[in-house]
Amino acid sequence: MARILVVEDDPNIRELLQYNLKKEGFEVKTAEDGEKGLEEIETKWPDLVILDLMIPYRDGLEICRIMRSKRELAHIPVIILTAKGEEIDRVLGLEMGADDYVTKPFSTREIIARVKALFRRVHAIEKNEEGILIRGRLTINLENYEVILGDKKIDFTPKEFQLLYLLASRPGKVFTRDFLLEQIWGYEYLGDSRTVDVHIRHLRQKLEDDLIETIRGVGYKFID
What we know:
12 strands; Arc Repressor Mutant, subunit A; 44% helix; 8 helices
């Protein structure tokens, strides 16, 4: 049973998410502030975190940053909750390593769809793909989410890994932003293509190599 941690200071939203996610068969823990949420993450290692950005003591952005800076936590998918109109916070959340976001107010059906889609995408590579993908100096191990460039191991979030794998699996092919949104996020995404741009920027920063080319006005391709 997949374990989900909900970090949210609003008791009504916290209880609503816990109740509905439990109905879907998930094990759900909750925390009402950033300190308790981070303690739960560091000691219990949930399979997914739903994280409100505006929470007491440690905000969601700080928690995202801490998680992505620690190898043992970096792989845990994160869905951030933002208030309507907080575009800057939403983009910052993605830049800090969040895998997805949901804007308040939201429907429980939307949250459940996002959670299931994220789990489906994270597990797809683990269950259906085997072996090692090699592209020049880049080696992608599909069994343990390991990426090595030259002799350097690089840590990626689940979404970053999936995006890199998809691009590297078809070197030279141009992928549109809309296609990448559909394939990686796995549902009719309500955001915009800047989500892809943020994740591509993360890939480039971590790879420190010219492996991904921007095709202006279209999308991206992997250069073998």
